[in-house]
Amino acid sequence: MLRLIRLELNKFRWGIYLRNAAIAAIVVALWCVTSIPNEDTSSYKSAFSAISSYARGTFIVFSSVLMSRMIIDEYRNKTAGVLFTYPINRKKLFIAKLALLYIITFSLLVLANGFVDLFFLLMDAQYNYIPESLTNRVLLEEAVSIVLIALASTGLSLIPFYFGMLRKSVAATITSSFILAMGFSSGIHLSWSEILISAIGITAVGIFMAALAIRNVETQDVQD
């Protein structure tokens, strides 16, 4: 499986998508420093919650774009037929692709959320957006929250794969991710244990939906 993941990693042109991810993170950062101060945010916890909502919404949709390019487009462009002539189990190929997408999405979300937090804090040091003092405890809590919320958001990002595979549709993949992003982009005010439980539950749902999408892939005609 690791060999398949490495092969997928090497064959995909990541440069343009990493550049677009960086641009998206910068846009989110600029949006946060202009919108959050206007919301009369009085605490870092509230500010970080707003930043998290913008970041995860953006990268849930971004993940669906990657998913479309890596998987759905292979059906639309009929390159999946060539891929499936290889002496490799089809389900293993899909699992490798989805595992790679999970790793990439999680990593990008953690990095983007951390970058936007840092940018906001640098601007806050200059313009004093938040009246309360910034403590090491606040920073530690935010670091843990970034990782836990990224786990939940990445699990959520697997769900659009099911809708995309129904009709091999890029539009369905991206539209469903946008709806999910809108539905789960509100601020999260939960304890670490609650976020962790949510992350496990959402990831389980995402994996289940992905499994449903590929359950018949061994017998399914590429032209369907």
**Rg result:** 19 Å
Helix share of residues?
over 70%
The coarse overall form would be elongated
Tell me the series of helices and strands, N- to C-terminal: HHHHHHHHH
Proportion in β-strands: under 5%
| Overall mean pLDDT | 83
Structural class: mainly alpha
Strand count, sense and closure of the main sheet?
A: none
Instruction: Give the termini distance in whole angstroms.
Output: 27 Å
Strand runs, count: 0
Uncertain segments: none
Q: Number of helical runs?
A: 9
Describe the structure.
The two termini are 27 Å apart. By secondary structure, the chain is mainly α. It is elongated and about 60 Å long. Helix 2 packs antiparallel against helix 3 (44-76), helix 3 (44-76) runs parallel beside helix 6 (136-156) and helix 7 runs antiparallel to helix 8 (170-183). The mean pLDDT is 83. Helices cover 77% and strands 0% of the residues. It has nine helices and no strands. The chain has helices at residues 2-11, 15-35, 44-76, 80-83, 90-127, 136-156, 159-167, 170-183, 192-214.
Task: Provide tags for this entry.
about 220 residues, mainly alpha, 9 helices, about 75% helix
Outline of the structure:
With 224 residues, this protein is mostly helical. The chain has helices at residues 2-11, 15-35, 44-76, 80-83, 90-127, 136-156, 159-167, 170-183, 192-214. Helix 6 (136-156) packs parallel to helix 9 and helix 7 (159-167) packs parallel to helix 9 (192-214).
